[in-house]
Amino acid sequence: MNAIKETNFNFDNQTAFYRGKVRDVYTIANTYLAMVASDRISAFDVVLPRPIPYKGQVLNQIAAKFLKATADIIPNWVVSVPDPSVTIGQMCEPFKVEMVIRGYLSGHAWREYAAGKREVCGEALPEGLKENDKLPEPIITPTTKAAVGHDEDISRTDILKKGIVSEEDYVQLEQYTKALFQRGTEIAAQRGLILVDTKYEFGKKDGKIVLIDEIHTPDSSRYFYAEGYQERQEKGESQKQLSKEFVRKWLIENGFQGKDGQVVPEMTDEIVASISERYIELYEHIVGEKFVYPNQENVLERVERNVANALKTLNY
């Protein structure tokens, strides 16, 4: 299948290149970033061996739509989206924390709660909650951004004590995080979905806070179907969800959680196709449009051409 596992382009005025877990990032004239959303997939901070067709396009196009839909709340880094799998934006100085916000007790927070913890990142959790219960109000549970390995939970108190972010900036980050989550929740509800939790990344450009990276995608967020949510909770059933959590569950069921000595289970063609279908399903639900498959030309040639043409229009 025509998936983007990695890119190795060389653009005019390119000054740096960085390959992340799932993105290939080209720095242009130390002013712009051309970010290619590859079809690589990671879980438990490990890049899995096979790419997922169309995953990068799904993430890139959802993020583009949500960044546009939240531009009245906070300015963002985007300059253009010249290709289904690429965003070009302003280079910003990123904050060294990711702002995770949770409206429900799911995923990592639930695993901590089930292990007996009643506080996550300094946020107290009440007794008697079940997995996927709605929290009394959304909580912010930041993580430090690790260049390699696992991101680590951190509290607001420690962020300020260690001087990772100034108090003035952190207060603003909290306000933006809550406003963005509220907007994302409203849009999801219009589509019959619940935005369970998500993360935001912020940077600074010319002294101003800017929203960067992708938002409200299945890699950065967890969604439940609203229909039947309450009934499933009352019966103690698993929630029907659209997020990367189903990949994590498949890995856990097959003995992999990213720990030393564990081996990624075989990713058969059927598994790869089913993951791809789930990503497309989420796209169609959250965006409310049919997914448009790109022309079956060589995907790397298409991406390189579209980025090169877009860069010619920029000033640097």
UniProtKB/TrEMBL annotation:
- Which terms in the Gene Ontology molecular function aspect does this entry carry? ATP binding; phosphoribosylaminoimidazolesuccinocarboxamide synthase activity
UniProt keyword annotation of Ligase present? yes
Catalysed reaction(s)? 5-amino-1-(5-phospho-D-ribosyl)imidazole-4-carboxylate + L-aspartate + ATP = (2S)-2-[5-amino-1-(5-phospho-beta-D-ribosyl)imidazole-4-carboxamido]succinate + ADP + phosphate + 2 H(+)
Limits of the SAICAR synthetase/ADE2 N-terminal domain = 17-255
Key words of the record? ATP-binding, Ligase, Nucleotide-binding, Purine biosynthesis
Q: Which family does it belong to?
A: Belongs to the SAICAR synthetase family.
Write down what this protein is called: Phosphoribosylaminoimidazole-succinocarboxamide synthase
Organism of origin? Sphingobacterium siyangense
